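Hi P.,

Sorry for the delay on this. The queue was packed all week, but I finally got your sequence through. Input first:
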Amino acid sequence: MTPPPPVAPAEGGDDVAPRHARRSPRAAQARAAALAGLAVVCLGAGALTSVALDGAQEEPVARATTAAEVRTPAPTPTSACVPAPLEQRAAATLVVGLPDVRRATDPLARDVVALGVGGVFLSESNVGTAQQVAALSAGLRALAARPLLVSTDEESGRVALMRGVVGAGPSPRRMTQRETPEAVRQRAAATGKALASVGVDLDLAPVLDLDDGPAGGVVGDRSFSADPATAADYGLAYAQGLTDAGVRPTMKHFPGHGRSTVDSHETSALVTTGLDELVATDLLPFQRAIDAGAPVIMLNHLQYAALDPDRPASLSPRAYALLREMGFEGVAMTDSVGMGAVNLRWDFPAAAVEAVAAGADAVLTTDGRHAVRMRDALVEAVRTGTLPEQRLSEAAARVAALAGGDPVATSCVDVARPTLAGPVAVP
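Then the structure:
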């Protein structure tokens, strides 16, 4: 996620190794090729329809169809367990920004924490000094009834929302040109240490997109490389460095943003590349990250002809199905739903429902003033049957686990807790 440009639409952990075996790119290609066939998806009323992942479909698919329903049986709640109220589970799926908030006593800060959001997002407008950010993070957590994620977007280079805390650094492309993966890991560990010292425990980095175009392009020098293996090596090194410092990384922007020259802060674009080519290129760094234990993956707002030509990946059941088919067990997060590619078609409440129904666990918005409407829309969607309650419970459980809370206490659902651990091996 990048800070919205001036023309953007207004928007105001336990360490457990992955349970799946390490997968090779060839195995990933075989699984993704299987996805190009027919996937059976469950509709809310229990009817079945077949959907081709190449973009053709035999019958319309209900928007409530979820990736979890597509690929795996829903986790079974403990019989004696009572989940948190529906309103709390809905709020737990939201990660929201706090525009211009510098203190936890600010009314917006108090309101979103009282609502029970799963996390907050800190941008430049929240950053004064390191001491001030640390006090803000600590104050927010003191107000929260459950563990709270405190996130930011620190990629180094031009997207560095905590530059005032961690200092300036080279772009990912420049890192690749001048440093070894081990040096990048050490650099990211220093960044992570600085973030952790001010209470940040989730960084929306690194970028795994492939791009060797102009440095100032939509992705540009935010990409480590246009070569899939190199991007994977350096991206995982950066992610491991953050992990070494106790900060969880977020791999982005699945299934790869490098092929688009359109800024999704303003509008969406259609990627026409076939699935086989995506598997061999754009998806390879994400497969490597999943096999290494990625805890969080962010989905972008582009449309893909091979998956869903009419809906951005962040709101597409097929995109989340692909992600889970690749073996991902962590938190699937949207890019900010206030960006034009989504917000010009779906208002914040509708976007939250569409995303969670499609398979998102965490819905990001950089403006927490929409949080109440988003929470209420999720609650209403469950009550009217538009959104299966089990899907919402699973999403809330995953976010709770990422924050270091008890997913069973939240949703009566236990979930995997993947994390990067030890050296990142190349398959």
